[in-house]
Specification:
The protein is α/β, with parallel strands linked by helices. It has a domain of about 220 residues: Amidase signature (AS) enzymes (Alpha-Beta Complex), CATH 3.90.1300. α4 links the parallel β2 and β3. The relative contact order is 0.14.
Amino acid sequence: MIAASAQSIARRVAARQDSAGAVVAAAIERARAVQSRTNAFTEILPEHALARAHALDAALDAGAAPGPLCGVPVVIKDNICTTAGHTTCASRILAGYRSPFDATAVARLAAAGAVVIAKANMDEFGMGSSTERSAYGPASHPTASGRVPGGSSGGSAIAVASGVVPIALGSDTGGSIRQPAAFCGVVGLKPTYGRVSRLGLVAYASSLDQIGPIAGSVADAALALRVIAGHDPADATSLPDAAADMSQPLGRAPASLRVGVVGPEATEGLHPGVRAALDRAAGALRDAGAHLVPVQMPHAEHAIAAYYLIATAEASSNLARFDGVRFGRRAALGPLDGIDELYTRSRSEGFGPEVTRRVLLGTFALSSGYADQYYGRALRARRLIKGDYDAAFAHGCHALLTPVTPGPAFMIGEKTSDPLSMYLQDAFTVGVNLAGLPALSLPMGTTPDRGQELPVGVQLVGPPMGEPALLAIAALVENAGTSHA
């Protein structure tokens, strides 16, 4: 059950109809109940959260101006740095690590009045599509017993879908916000690359990673993005105009709205429930006056291969720092063991099997004699994939309508022994990251699957810096979608 909206909580706290302390205490109680059945959190932070909430109440009672997220409880994915609690990336190698600073996105939430109540469980270092690859153990779907919540931001999606908080932060490298949002029946927004500062996000693949919100509604996702977006001079990848237009309300979608729809040849193998969800979304768009136009994505078939070469290569480089000397948990050694043994044992004990697999793949892709054959070709494919999106938007499309995932949430353990099957869960999301575009996962009803009723979602993709129009279009579908359920 999704919680009260962030907007309504902030209004009530600002008007002193509710206290931040009471709102946060209730959220902590819900988090503890949800944790016992889903393992959604790596850490719940009652002392920090209640102290922060009481300080907000005192400031408001003294006449302080309320922020747009005044008293709103939030959850932060455990690869985003917070001074409260630990930041472990759900990895043994960072066990016990405390960040000396808040990520820029977290600091902006706090400045707007939000209260961090917990860190969310995730696939280790963001490398996974199910939140099964965590040093804290797998997380479980919030409503469907035995199913995964998606990943890698699975804990964040559970927190919103279970009504613990109205907004959570996740990170999206190849679909890690959008896929769990679709599996759990909530909204997930991956912003334009550079729209939100990456300072304080522990890097997996630096040219792909982006922080974004998971929320119970399009309006709350838009509110969260307005708070966290904007240029950060401490982040070299931050866009100089990253806050442009983000103060605009949702309003209406663009005049003469055109939405591109990929042909059936690009969506083969979809679960019938996902295809039905796309049809419902298309119907909602038509009812809102949109003109649906076919678009071609001729290089989409190469997206998975290009993504998993580029992402693993960047992971190999980024995770080299976790060696037990510069960063990370250090293995215990005997008196005759040397530095090579220290590196080997620290990483072997600290990294889980999926992280190890991806680091090895990336190291091979960058190795002498293979870099151009693999990594170089993947970069060339990336340019072609971006060109497909550019062509669609150049022909007047305001957004593209696509699947998020091939099917609804799968069973826990169903794909862990088959990495390729797991990687193919990202087939409809990785292209967006390769192209640096904004995209949003929107709930679109449920579907039966093996005796359970499961949420399904659709994806809307926008041009660079196109979040205002993208959110407005998503709001149209959200408002009209129930008539097509």
